[in-house]
Design goal:
Order of helices and strands: EEEEEEHEEEEEE
Strand order of the largest sheet: 5-6-7-8-9-10-11-12
CATH architecture of the largest domain: Beta Barrel
CATH topology of the largest domain: Porin
Radius of gyration: 18 Å
Shape: globular
Number of domains: 2
Largest sheet: 8 strands, antiparallel, barrel
Length: 157
Amino acid sequence: MLKVLRRPGYVTIPISATGRIPQLLRMTARGPLTYVWKSIRLELAKTPGFPSGSASRAYMLNLPMRKDGTVDVQAVRANPAIAGFRRFWPNEPDRRGHVVRTDGGWALSFQPATNGRTLFLIEMRRLLPGDEVMIERSEGGSWPFRVVDLPPVDRQS
């Protein structure tokens, strides 16, 4: 017998692809859920000042990701409070903000938005382990960051 689990926003229906391995198909009112919220860790890649990169200079992005490594824009627009980030930098307190879609691409906006401080992610076509993205700072200059990890977000905690 098919057991349907109901949660706010979607329904989880256990199905079996091979008859032995249970899989989950998440359904929304419009059909199957095409993304999974992930915590994407970006670490500073090779730069002249950091020839090996730097794991202590990192961003943790919380975004809805499709299987091909692209961000689901509609899910970000539908859940703007969940699409966020945290910046880890040595000798500085962690900073938090939101990931927003702009005409020029994706922007990282700090909270509170003092002095209109925004960082822009450029060329964020996909985010898979090993990929690099550039973060352009509003005051000029850009730094390369490498995608290190993409575990699913634990929505229970």
